[in-house]
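Running co-folding for fructose -6-phosphate.
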Amino acid sequence: MCGIVGYLGSKEAYPILIKGLKRLEYRGYDSAGLAIHNGETIRQYKRKGKVSKLESAAENQPKEGTLGIAHTRWATHGEPNDVNSHPHTSTSGRFHIIHNGIIENFDSIKEALKKRGYSFQSDTDTEVLINLIEDIFEEGDMPLEKAVQAALNQVSGAYAIAVIDNENPDLMVVAKMGSPLVVGLDNGHFYVASDATPFVEYTKKAVYLEDGEMAVLRRNENISVFTVETDSPVEPYVHQLTLDIEQIEKGGYEHFMLKEIYEQPRSIYDSLRGRLLPEEEKIIMRGVSEYKEKFLNADRIIIVACGTSWHAGLVAEYIFEEMARIPVEVEYASEFRYRNPIINENDVVIAVSQSGETADTLAAIKLAKSKGATIFGVCNIVGSSIARESHAGTFTHAGPEIGVASTKAFTAQVAVLTLMAIKIGYERGNLPKSEYIKYLHELNRVPDMVEKVLTCNNDNLYAIAEKYAEAENALYLGRGVNFPVALEGALKLKEISYIHAEGYPAAEMKHGPIALIDENMPVVIIAQKNANYEKVVSNAQEVKARKGKIIAIISPDDTEVRRLADHTIEVEETYELLSPLLTTIPLQILSYHIAVIRGCNVDQPRNLAKSVTVE
Ligand code: F6R
């Protein structure tokens, strides 16, 4: 979490930094700040709240200069206020830093620095780091980059940092460990950012620093990269970005979340394209084929993930077990990594992550890797830490997801995991050829079916949203492969509208949550016709008997649930194991409308950040 931006070149830094911060605001929006060197001195502006507040604070203030750093914060150490905002400055006022990550041993370093006469304005670990850099610089009579390097060798934790010097308007030093950092290059211009979105309109050339690397950016010179620990030079690999500016703009939609919901026919299609070949009766997935023997002989698949990605993992559990008959365990990455899990060499660990940067998921796969398991990454961001830490993997091609609440990334994950399950199930001999071919053709129809769900239901969902926008609680029920969809529906509602919502397996309702049901309680039931249909009808009856308000997702030809429900949303029927790709969509739209009606900031819900790079 936290987003960092930097610029060194011949253009005015301020507009580049502000625009960059707005693109990275999804990473945190507790406060924002920037520091710009005008050739003589550094000026800083920072404010609690969003980037727009910072802009107002800097309006009519001098901010010219061609070197600058900027930061948007998701608070870890110290409450969100002006003082704790980045950039932070060393005690003498000379050095300025922005930082994404956590310095774990900051307390002991702070105590030692205090004894040496350093004073601290903020509660942050970052201010400790910049003072440590200053202390080493003063003591050691060395260039700034060497002082940064020495300081980084004393700290433990995670960082992506950029440091500038009041005495040198031509230099920026950046470094990375555990948090993302990319440098855009364009003939004499350096752009630094947490991801490439702040500079994609200026250059498509980018160097992604690896963990333990730092780079010196000097005006009119080439980037130089070396390792923090051993000071060895590294030849930077220049990536050619494929990201387009249109992909990261709202394109006429009121919110990114809505745009991303409506992009799903495309993002699912893109995630299947070139892989799902029904006419040739083939699924081509290079990563799976490279590790074919591991998958075919796996004793177990362990899926590790967090949040919405964990829900995608739960959907995959049903599909893998049914199709491939391999036992699957789905673990919260944060629990897995801290409980001494039993992992064997015959286990395949699948890490599911949109950002590819989630700290707990990353730590979980590092642990599993150290115990000999095969690690397979399902990530949306090429070059991300989880993708690089995996032995093999496959990307979801959802495109950039900017709304903090995950939508299109979820369906892309489910689509890719489904594809894997069909392939592995068939190759293991568990899925008969006739079934295999049926699934290939049906999965191929999913993008069109999603399009239909999107076009048919919006008005109906808006009317339902208007009715329940003031609800205080909501219950989501589903069975089988649609139980994780219920969890995901509840998560979407609570994170963007702040209504308390819970997802449950429908049959579990009577073991507790039924006590909550009264005439004010909306209960969303995923009740399509499938193997569990009759059971779900009974569950709907139980809700009705307690006067709960039923919002049901039903098959178009349904009569039984339609009779019981207060509101129905028709979703075309497909094979049960593919149904989450369709049933999820109306739940996303419902949450979106409710949040907008309640006046919530759907793209940037309170307290959240898109990329959770802290534990
Ligand atoms: C919810 C949401 C989060 C993420 C979770 C994992 O809408 O977006 O729950 O799913 O933080 O993030 P990734 O997938 O980037 O590892």
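Result summary
The mean pLDDT is 95.
The domain at 3-247 is CATH 3.60.20.10 (Glutamine Phosphoribosylpyrophosphate, subunit 1, domain 1).
Job closed.
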